[in-house]
């Protein structure tokens, strides 16, 4: 059985994007980027909602490789090699190595979890909240960046109530602290 992990970089005040939905967080430098490259390599399947998938499609662009350093190119290759499932009712197609799901998302994720192994990565708070409400997320990884955005898109969706138990913490480059939690009981 696979483990479902929701992991995102966020501000100290809990936001993954700023007030105008701009990224707002410092871009990971090489050493921190390598950590995320390894995380992507460990991901057996990546789950995305439409908005997060559209942001990540940046890594599919051939122009991206021309403007990238070695660490970013390594991430781009890992991202492209990772199978993706995109949940959207508005998209009509997705890129290479991706599958589009227009309905029955919870059932699809249950099946991926039951039939898979390794880590299934979830990106985006809306999809993560839906999976959390269905009891499908096994671990939350909060990458706290030492910055305050003052508002924006939160890591945890408003109205989502969870009891969590700590699994550990780790200090990473750029002052980022990784906090790991699992659902309690």
Would you write up a description of this structure?
It contains 6 helices and 10 strands, in the order ββαβαααββαβαββββ. The chain has 185 residues and is α/β, with parallel strands linked by helices. The chain has one domain: Dihydrofolate Reductase, subunit A (3-Layer(aba) Sandwich), CATH 3.40.430. Strands 5-4-3-6-1-7-10-9 form an 8-stranded mixed β-sheet. The chain has a two-stranded antiparallel sheet with strand order 2-8. A hairpin with a 5-residue loop joins strand 9 and strand 10 (177-183). The longest helix is centred in the N-terminal third of the chain and has 13 residues, at 30-42. The chain is globular, with a radius of gyration of 16 Å. The two termini are 19 Å apart. The mean pLDDT is 93. GO terms for molecular function: 5-amino-6-(5-phosphoribosylamino)uracil reductase activity. Pfam families: RibD_C. It comes from Labrys okinawensis. This is Dihydrofolate reductase.
Descriptive tags:
8-stranded mixed sheet; DHFR-like_dom_sf; RibDG_C; 185 residues; Riboflavin_Biosynth_HTPR; 5-amino-6-(5-phosphoribosylamino)uracil reductase activity; Dihydrofolate reductase; two-stranded antiparallel sheet; alpha/beta; Dihydrofolate Reductase, subunit A; single chain; 31% helix
